[in-house]
């Protein structure tokens, strides 16, 4: 039976920056998240939708940018984000073979809200990220449908759940159960407090690589499990496969060029957990700002005063810490899942009953 824990009370806090009151991406005002989870025997998958605000995202676009840390992925919509520097749909997360259904659902939703799309107006750029959950989920069943996007979209709220939910249902992380993770950090820049929030879809890494708050936990667990040195060496030699999607939100006024720089710092948080961005890992980071929106039909755009580049370091630090914390949150919050062909992933807590001792934490009650 899985251990019941309050992740944000029990998990180690990364760095010295304070988190927001919720400890999730929803600490960035206006951001909401919804999940739709499929838990039906061999079907262990789902959809997660991130809404940057409650307004129409096509009419009121938000500035954004993407960094491809390692491009082994099948996401859709990144090219236009890179070119125009805005989001015009919610962000959808799902499994690799669900990308098409999610894109179609986003297109239908945008047309329903704005019938001019594709006629008097330009077409819409659906934005979908994916990870391969095929170890636990029968991905060939193509279980994810447009209705699952609608359900996740309708469920979006500020009470964000982490773990084996939504798109994270079938995901694995460091050979353990992975999934959705959240975190936030608050920093002071030029006399004002800004929030950086992160949501990750964690589906990457091999166990020997796992580093948790600087502790070589994966190495300890691998050595503990190996009966012979050769067995440990063989486990270490397996290639890193999987993916991670890192979504970073902030209320700091940044333009798309600055958000590109911010998104790249997600890689620092990812690396701290032990990832080396392996050949078969699709590692993507997207950052957006809620400080202002870009109207769809406008002759000119007035930007607020932007944070100067020389003052971005606190935001960079907050991004790295938030992503690392969110990955820990995904591991900490996940519950065990048994799926396709009896495949199982145990949670971190089920695998490491003496986790608190290994990490030199206070006893967990």
From TrEMBL:
Family matches, as CDD domains: DmpA (cd02253)
Stored Pfam families: Peptidase_S58
Keyword Hydrolase: yes
One Gene Ontology term of the molecular function aspect: aminopeptidase activity
Entry similarity comment: Belongs to the peptidase S58 family.
Broad enzyme group: hydrolase
InterPro entries: ArgJ-like_dom_sf (IPR016117), Peptidase_S58_DmpA (IPR005321)
Gene3D superfamilies, alphabetized: L-amino peptidase D-ALA esterase/amidase
Domain of life assignment: Bacteria
Keywords recorded for this protein, A-Z: Aminopeptidase, Hydrolase, Protease
Enzyme Commission code(s) on record: 3.4.11.25
Protein name as it appears in the record: Beta-peptidyl aminopeptidase BapA
